[in-house]
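Quick board copy: two proteins, each given as sequence then tokens.
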Amino acid sequence: MRYLATEGMGEADPKDVVFVPWDAYRAGIFKHPAKWFAEKLIKARFRCLEDAAAAAELMWVRVTSTKRGEITGNLANQPFNATYLRYGDEVTLRPQGVLAVQD
């Protein structure tokens, strides 16, 4: 099953907006092409269901491949509020959705 991270999912409700941390912005993380993230551990935000305690949840993703400007990987932690996801699920997102990178 494939899920798309919050970034690029259309118009966001103001309560769903999660600002990019200053450190990520200053480092220009989101400006890198998708292939730069290959085999890295990245942090991204995922939309939570409407009845969740939070609008979005930050989770780590172990990148397995990059193709056509998208990053694909497996969740590296168990979601708490994004209950439609599970540890190990394959997810796909754009580089603009990456908030942190760990080699």
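And the next:
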Amino acid sequence: MEFITQIMTRLLWSLPMLLVYGAGAVLAIVFWKRCPRACLLALIACLVLIAGSLFSNVASTWLFWVAVRRYGWSSKVYTAASTVISIAGTVIHAGGIGLLLAAVFAGRPRPAEVL
């Protein structure tokens, strides 16, 4: 039960960002007809960011509770595994932000060439 409580606590700390990502996904759906390519990229980005946040929180909590408490991993092994989870979370987050940036510029007309 403590494991679930810890996950819920970590997700509560992430709730403001999860709400922003969720709102972004809803807005992407609402404005789909206006600019479908940008909205598709924004929707995928928001879903990636939600998944990345959930992954990081659950994986970090699992690592501590299972690996350290149940299997008695040393601090060196725990730190290495925690680093891998952190890097994976950062890569997922960067991918989501990259998709949001692509959505901002998707489908924009090019400015007329100046002679």
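Board note added afterward: The CA atoms of residues 1 and 7 lie 10 Å apart.
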